[in-house]
Amino acid sequence: PRRARIRSVGRFLPERRLTNRDLEKMVDTSDEWIMTRTGIRERRILDPGLGCSYMAIRAARECLDRAGVEASEVDAIIVGTVTPDMFFPSTACLVQKGIGADRAWGFDLSAGCSGFVFSLTTGVQMIESGRYDKVLVIGADVMSSIIDYTDRNTCVLFGDAAGAVLLEPCEEEGYGVLDFIQRVDGAGEPYLHMKAGGSRKPASHETVEAREHFVYQEGKRVFKFAVTEMADVSVKILERNGLEGKDVKLFIPHQANLRIIEACAQRMGMEMDRVVVNIERYANTTGATIPLCLYEAVVEKNALEKGDYLVMSAFGAGFTWGSVLVRW
Ligand code: ACO
């Protein structure tokens, strides 16, 4: 059967930095607390009014430029995001126009912090179907647009960014995206959600006053779930492909908390020197964390050679979680 491969990567990072020191002036927190509990030192914040598509378009353009592919060659665009410019039209439509992908269709995919992984595997299956040859997969989130900067439980954790990959058919047997495992469990709803602004509780003066248009999270519950479930699928995907942690060149986990990443790597039997971590600089950018890490590994460090195994794993609101195995 036909397989897909990642041909190219692009990203966009807003210039503006919000450091732990800045946050110390906004809420009752400290650089020391944030560093030891999360591993985050600073995050990027998009200027107000620009929106998710602003970043997604820029990441997509870089991705296509690196591949030397014209936007008109793109068949489909999938944007994994929980912070679209608006409910409708989808961010994918805005990206289509922004890059000039005049033959493409596309859609947004909502899966919390698993948005990129779910979008990637959806794009992979579109390539595998034989119907499409170039699928642009973007993870992009303006978390600053849904964060309550008076709530120290959440405001220290998130940042803004976008990352993009271009998927193509993989000509060589045994390479490309080999396998994935994905799950959702709606029992996670109470622990991580946005209370208002949807159809159950539309925006009103009351919802604004009650600060219900922001991320609500019970961190401890999410933490426990993440450590067990993300590690489980990451271990399982190795096992069922006859691999061990030592066979994997790079592990790219979703960047939500350094302690979650370390626990997951340990369960996979991987040393931290083969785990991509950039949470210190960008915090949790939801849909963008994994492509940002992939960008650093591939473009900046040239850390993947042909034949190397790569595992990417994520978890997020829903709950949602999943793991993808790639042979580069
Ligand atoms: N500064 C100082 N103190 C703080 C801060 C802060 N920024 N935030 C919380 N605290 C306090 C709490 O109020 C609490 O005080 P109390 O004991 O007096 O009540 C204390 O610190 C300990 O809080 P915990 O929640 O127990 O701290 P924990 O070690 O669990 O760390 C954290 C909290 C970082 C949020 C962690 O639980 C975590 O990372 N959870 C997972 C988050 C995550 O992965 N989300 C993922 C997906 S997001 C998505 O899908 C959109």
Detailed description of the structure:
InterPro entries: ACP_syn_III_C, ACP_syn_III_N, FabH, Thiolase-like. It contains eleven helices and 13 strands. It is α/β, with parallel strands linked by helices. The protein has two domains: 3-170, Peroxisomal Thiolase, Chain A, domain 1 (3-Layer(aba) Sandwich), CATH 3.40.47; 176-327, Thiolase/Chalcone synthase (Peroxisomal Thiolase, Chain A, domain 1). The strands form four sheets. A five-stranded mixed sheet has the order 1-7-6-4-5, sandwiched between helices. A four-stranded mixed sheet has the order 8-13-12-11, sandwiched between helices. Helix 3 crosses helix 4 (91-99) and helix 8 runs parallel beside helix 9. The longest helix is centred in the C-terminal third of the chain and has 21 residues, at 219-239. The protein starts with a strand and ends with a strand. Acetyl coenzyme *A binds next to helix 2, helix 6 and helix 8.
Quick recap of the structure?
GO terms for molecular function: 3-oxoacyl-[acyl-carrier-protein] synthase activity; beta-ketoacyl-acyl-carrier-protein synthase III activity. The chain has 328 residues and is an alpha/beta fold.
